[in-house]
Amino acid sequence: MTLTETETVPGPARRALRAPGVRMGCLALLVAAVACADLFAGRGVTPEGVREVLLGGGDPTAEHIVLQLRLPRLLVALVAGACLGVAGLVLQSALRNPLAGPEVTGVTPGAVLGAVAATGLGLAGWESPTAVVVAACLGGFAGAGLLWLLAGREAGDPEQTAVYGVLVSAVLAGLTAVVLLVAPGELGSVVQWLIGSAEGRVWQHWNLLWPWAAFWGAAAWLLAGPLTLLRCGDEQASAAGLATGRGRGAALVCAVALTAGAVSAVGALGFVGLLVPHLALAVFGADLRITLPGAALLGATVVCGADAAAQLLSRLLATALDADRLTLPVGALTTFVGAGLLMVVARRRADER
Questions:
Q1: For 37, 170, 278, 323, which has the most beta carbons within 10 A of its beta carbon?
Q2: pTM to 2 decimals?
Q3: Is 329 helix (H, G, I), strand (E, B) or coil?
């Protein structure tokens, strides 16, 4: 009997080949679990009522809440998280900087500034997703462009890029504060962009987000080879025949587009694009052909799980404080938990040194 190519591989090596697929499958199951938790965690309909609606029953009010509010909110949270996870990994690989998340490279602050400025000028609003996507993209590309101009020839230097990224992010955050001072009446409508929230997402947001995410996510995956070379350094990438300037520019375009799409949908979710890539590399390794889809699944898991936790905590706090309208934004939760994890990682690395 002729053995297949896989059967000729020794047992341990064959198990190693299967490991990424097993991990990806386990992660997909985790995504499904947090999605179910997010669907059942909200207020207004009991878990039993949600089950009845999903089985084709339930009263009209419960059906509207589940199918027109909770389901699109769930899907938007999943895709926005996937966008941020992939964008963070692309940025960190292209800039060879483990701290080059969208939050500290001017991309997220620029996207937020674009959305806030458009809202203040009356050109967009939280209820007009198309205008917000355009405004957030323009702001995100402006922020990335400003970083690129300041870094100049030092764009390949991770340390210098990080310094300029923090500077650009601080400037853009200051401009956002100025816009809020000029148009204080818009504060209520933009605070969700500043903190990050999946509340109020409807099918219109989903219909705009998923094609955008699918296109730019596929583009990022096609850049897996050049990104892997860029992670090794410009000299090694050039020796391998890669035009580093073009490769890095294409990667940044993908990262900015993915970040802008996520920000336009759920606002500025802190630390997702910064920490998820580290987790993806730890789980899936340095082969970005596998790690990029893994980062997407991990980002979706983190944001959707955080949204489920935020809804559950909102229910508990509303009951304890007798405040029916109390809502905990998912961005507050990701920022709080992400900051704690970042301090733990930084302390551990300091101890290792």
A1: 278
A2: 0.87
A3: coil
